[in-house]
TrEMBL record:
Sequence ranges of Low complexity compositional bias: 111-121
Natural source organism: Streptomyces caeruleatus
Ribonucleoprotein in keyword set: no
Protein name listed in UniProt: Sec-independent protein translocase protein TatB
Keyword Lipoprotein: no
Any single biological process term in GO: protein transport by the Tat complex
HAMAP family assigned: TatB (MF_00237)
């Protein structure tokens, strides 16, 4: 709960508490706070037990932590009845992106070079996207008064 509080911060909080509440009232305040936290925990545990008893025996292994979406997904991935790991491992995003990049730059990849060499009568079929298209002269497109 307080994992990110350093020793200097803890000492500062103790000194501040002594200054605000005084050394006489501080032990009483600590007891009151711990008693309140204990009551809140007991109340939440009884509420959880009531919910489990109302849900019935088919939800006997229900955990409230499973309502957290990250925990739910982690449990489902570990279960893997649907073959999700196989599907996820089937996609090689880096390879796909490299193929797209190579196609844009006009280079042939291993898979496209083998497929283009096996196709009959293909003339390469690659388009060099780095070249600018040739313009016939300096012709302007026709003016369309309705479009403006």
């Amino acid at each position: 709960m307080f994992n990110d509080i350093g020793p200097l911060e803890l000492v500062t909080l103790v000194v501040l508490a002594v200054l605000v509440f005084g050394p006489d009232k501080l032990p009483k305040m600590i007891q009151d706070v711990t008693r309140t936290i204990r009551k809140i925990r007991e109340f939440s545990e009884s509420a959880k037990q009531d919910i489990r008893s109302e849900l019935g025996p088919e939800f006997k292994d229900f955990e409230f932590e499973d309502l957290n979406p990250k925990t739910f997904i982690r449990k489902q991935l570990d279960n893997d009845e649907l073959g999700i790991k196989e599907i996820r491992n089937g996609f090689d995003l880096k390879k796909e992106m490299a193929e797209v990049t190579d196609a844009v730059h006009g280079r042939e990849t291993e898979s496209s070079s083998s497929s283009s060499s096996s196709s009959s009568g293909s003339s390469g079929g690659t388009v060099d996207m780095t070249k600018k298209p040739e313009k016939p002269g300096d012709e302007r497109p026709p003016y369309d008064a309705d479009a403006t």
